[in-house]
Amino acid sequence: MAPRPRHKKGENLPEHLYYYAQRGIYRIKLVNGKFKSLGTDRDKAVSIAREYNRIARPKVALKVDDLLNYGSFIDEQPFAEHVPKLLNRIMTDEQPSEDLAKTMENDAKRTQEFFAHIPGSHINLQHVNDYLIQYHSEASANVQNRKVAWLKKLFSYAVDESIMPANPASLKKKRRLDAKQRSRLKKEWYDQIHAAAPLWLQTAMDLSLQTTHARLEISRIKYKIKKPNKKTCGCVWFKEPQQTKHGKLYGTLYIHRQKVAQREAAHVAIPIGEEIKHIIDRSRDSLLSDYVVHRLPAKSKVKLSKEVDHVTQLTPDYISRTFSKIRDEVGCCDHLEPEKRPTFHEIRALSAYLFSGQGVDPQSRMAHTNAKSTKIYIENHVEWVEVPFAEIKAR
Questions:
Q1: Are residues 316 and 223 in the same domain?
Q2: In this structure, what are the phi and psi dihedrals at residue 78, rounded to the nearest 5 degrees?
Q3: What CATH number does the domain containing 217 carry?
């Protein structure tokens, strides 16, 4: 049987110091084999354990002589000189997305500037704190935590290459994140933004409202696919409309939600009724595109994003940014602070609210697990959750 993974609070502890998650305390194993509680304060426990090991276990402790002679076997060049090589290794090993790569490149420039005269072996927790104060003092807790994660990543590669003796960023405590503060999108705000939006954004908003799905799934919906598969979002049309007690059905919209791609509820089959068919029909224009949400770029020559496979397909980020831009132009949310204004993603919550108001359980439609009133069937070895027919009368 594989050993149980250590609790996060038990990582990077001195030898013979252990964290007991059930009681939330740190305990040290003494040389006589007995255990002694050192309380719940990690920093205090680590300090005591190191001092105890120094005296009682000199063979496992980092001795003062070692510290005084450290420069003899640790590179004393300014840490900034190592950053380009370390960044290149990170890019090669981790293959980050284009956006993340740009963020790390910007972080690397700040790191080079800050550590221009400080050797890696001299960097400590105080430097980490000073770095955050210099560059990110006004940033949110979430951003500061990400910047600490960047230093932790960079330093871990530096430790691996013997540029640093230890990773001081791993000692930095994460800041507590505030609960989400975004205001819910009201239907009247949705209508105001929709009225001012271009056709492609109206289409994206309407599809999100009818399906409960987010920008990524909406940007991938194709007008027509031959058969459902786990890699494609799109419509399979009936040869003839089917008459049901709810009205006419024209086909099925298949959506796989990437965020929960390993769960059975990730693959959702939504009946296409009058509302969804109207949205799709209305989206058609003179531009040839496989995608229901489409637009011709303003520039004739644009570099194709890794998130799309055709020049007319919209990236999820572009959908969100345009929605927020028009929201602010309309002014329906000007009474809210910018960080509290609803984004495109809030259409998903509005949709769930409106479906619930009609007595329809939105959970299965949203690709949430443990949903009620769902029917699971298998086609092409993929399990699809077939949701009950339901529509929101948009206007």
A1: yes
A2: -55, 140
A3: 1.10.443.10
Cα 187 → chain centroid = 27
CA distance linking residue 364 with residue 375, whole number of Å: 9
Residue 135 sits in a domain whose CATH number is 1.10.150.130
For residue 264, which amino acid is it? E
Contact of 265 with 369, CB cutoff 8 Å: yes
The answer to whether the beta carbons of residues 10 and 21 sit under 8 Å apart is: yes
CA 42/CA 48 separation, integer angstroms: 10
Look at the pTM and tell me if it is higher than 0.90: no
Domain extent, residue 43, equals: 8-61
121/200 same-domain check: no
In this prediction, residue 16 carries a pLDDT of 86
Tell me: the pLDDT tens digits for 159-207?
Answer: 898 898 889 898 898 888 766 677 889 999 999 999 999 999 999 999 9
What is the rounded CA–CA span in Å between residue 320 and residue 215?
A: 7
Establish if 314 belongs to a structural domain: yes
CB-facing half-sphere around the CA of 177: CA atoms within 13 A: 8
Domain-embedded: residue 216: yes
- C-alpha–C-alpha distance, residues 62 and 46, integer Å: 13
Instruction: Examine residue 331 and state whether it is found in any structural domain, yes or no.
Output: yes
SS3 of residue 370 by DSSP: coil
How many structural domains is the chain composed of?
A: 3
**Would you place residue 24 in the very low, low, confident or very high pLDDT band (cuts 50, 70, 90)?**
confident
* DSSP-assigned states of every residue in 20-76: ETTTTEEEEE-TTS-EEE--S-HHHHHHHHHHHHHHH-TTTS--HHHHHTGGGTS--
Q: Which of 138, 171, 204 is the last residue of a domain?
A: 171
Please measure the distance between the N-terminal and C-terminal CA atoms of the chain and give it in whole angstroms: 59
